[in-house]
Amino acid sequence: GFGWGAASRIGGDVRLLKCVYGVLVVSALLSAVLALFQLFGGLDWPDQVRAPAATFSNRNLLMHWLLVAWPAGWILLISASRVWWRIFWTVPLLVIPCLVILIGSKAGILALILEGIVLLGLLHGSAPAFGRLLRWAFLLVIIGVVSVLFWVFGAQHMTDKGEAFWRSHWTESVVSRTTAWQGAFDLLVDHPLGVGFGQFERAFPPYERNRDGWSPGLNRRQGHLHNDWLQLLVEGGLLIVPFILWGSWQFLRRIRKQFSEMSRDDDPFILAALSTVLGVVWLGCVSFPIQNGLILFAFSFFLGLLACKSSCERLQYKSLPNWK
């Protein structure tokens, strides 16, 4: 609610909104730099469950934060009026995908692709000149990311590592998640009214299963299911389904109305917000972004930007460079 309210208040002020986006992207960049020091510089601060994770406890949480900030960086890059600002905003756009790839998160890589396609398609439809510029920027960033990775590690190393990673980890990740989700459905069948919010960790262990009695990769007291939406259903039960469907329908109707009323001079920041929301929704299907307070606040903020009518009515971006 606080994030939603902040969005409705800040959304009408272009300078404040650019400031919020800038702080978000710079924060992600600093987190990525710290993670690179942990990965290559031997930095072991702070204590982490799965490094490199910057100041987070788990590298998946870091990946979620980077992906929340990535679309905002594109808007800041394209809307920058000075060359040196464009150079500055290019840095996180290069560092973030490099780190997501080095972390080895397949869900994160797919989220990067999804966010890029959505953002490119929306902006191209709203402003063809902006879309052409963004296509070139995407191409240069992709070339830059590939060049940096192959320059640092060598072509043969990256090829061998990539092939081994996808062969060894893809099956393990899919099996561990689908096995856990099967157990979650069994839990839901036994408790159709839900196990209670926050009770998943206590209720789930008897339902973890494979031939040894445990889900691969989940053989401990588990606080999350690698699927926030399914875990919400398990904890809340079937009674929350009508409320979720009604809320989603109302929200989609509001978004559709907002976008139908937008003109070419309206709100690139709203389009970036939609890209971020879709990225988080995807991550919520295979990971646990909503269970982190920072990600949840950012998610609610972007939802607020999308849903608050005052944002689209009051934001006019005719003064933004390249937004023609």
Detail the topology: elements first, then pairings.
Elements (H helix, E strand, L loop, with lengths): L1 H9 L3 H27 L18 H21 L3 H21 L2 H21 L1 H26 L1 H36 L9 H4 L24 H9 L4 H20 L7 H19 L6 H15 L1 H6 L10
Helix pairs in contact: 1-12, 2-3, 2-4, 3-4, 3-5, 3-11, 3-12, 4-6, 5-6, 5-11, 6-7, 7-9, 11-12
Report on the structure:
The chain has 13 helices and no strands. With 324 residues, it is mainly alpha-helical. Helix 3 runs parallel beside helix 5 and helix 6 crosses helix 7. It is globular and about 60 Å long.
Looking at this protein, list some descriptive labels:
single chain, 324 residues, mainly alpha, 13 helices, 72% helix, globular
What is the ordering of alpha helices and beta strands? HHHHHHHHHHHHH
Overall geometry: globular
The count of DSSP E runs of length 2 or more, i.e. the number of strands, is: 0
Oligomerization status of the protein chains: single chain
Report strand %.
under 5%
Cα distance, first to last residue?
34 Å
Short structural description:
The protein is mainly alpha-helical.
